[in-house]
Amino acid sequence: MKQKIPCWIDGALRPMDKLEVHRQGLRHPAVSVFVLCDGALLLQQRAAGKYHSAGLWANTCCTHPHWREDPATCATRRLREELGITGLALTHRGQIEYRADVGGGMIEHEAVDLFVAEVEARPPLTPDPAEVMATRWLDLDTLGHEAAGAPGRFTPWLRIYMDQHRDRILQPPAR
């Protein structure tokens, strides 16, 4: 059975085949999570079997919500499914929209709900090998230098987040 995700069609949210959404570059909801510890961001390298952006480094996790799934519930679910992380307090940092060619005739056109968890200790990880090839913690300055020096090693959305939305996503909110 083909996986369906929510997609805006004629101004209404409707379920549609995920691959078709990406082939047509249709606007759809997404969730991105960033787990930070002592100024370092937990990155994941997408598994080799992913249908796009395989083997590239991305933020902690990202996905599409199930039909009628709340973004916060989706973010919590995917942290558990992809990395085995549970029990984090996620802070919603708003929504952004981007459009990016992700290769293989696929376009991501996402309205992304952003979530951040700042932790005092690095949580234990149990990555799902079907989703995640590797993980690493990288301080934000090093991430910026690596992404600028070798952009082809990082997903287009992570480069967009770092280039255009870094302060909004990764800086603590003003008190």
Description:
It is a single chain. By secondary structure, this protein is α+β, with helices and mostly antiparallel strands. It has helices spanning 18-24, 71-83, 140-149, 156-164, 166-170, and strands at residues 4-9, 12-17, 27-37, 40-46, 57-58, 61-63, 91-103, 106-118, 132-139. Helix content is 25%, strand content 39%. Strands 3, 4, 5, 6, 7, 8 and 9 form a 7-stranded mixed β-sheet that branches. A two-stranded antiparallel ribbon has the order 1-2. The longest helix is centred in the middle third of the chain and has 13 residues, at 71-83. The protein is globular. The mean pLDDT is 93.
Features:
25% helix, alpha+beta, seven-stranded mixed sheet, 175 residues, two-stranded antiparallel sheet, 5 helices
SS-based class = alpha+beta
Average pLDDT taken over every residue: 93
**Biggest pleated-sheet summary:** 7 strands, mixed
Question: What percentage of the residues does DSSP assign to strands (E)?
Answer: 35-45%
Helix content: 25-40%
Radius of gyration: 15 Å
User: Can you tell me the residue ranges where pLDDT is under 50 for at least 5 consecutive residues?
Assistant: none
Global shape: globular
Supply the number of helical segments.
5
Q: Would you report the number of β strands?
A: 9
Protein topology:
Blueprint: E1 4-9, E2 12-17, H1 18-24, E3 27-37, E4 40-46, E5 57-58, E6 61-63, H2 71-83, E7 91-103, E8 106-118, E9 132-139, H3 140-149, H4 156-164, H5 166-170
Parallel strand pairs: 3-8
Antiparallel strand pairs: 1-2, 3-4, 3-6, 4-5, 4-9, 7-8
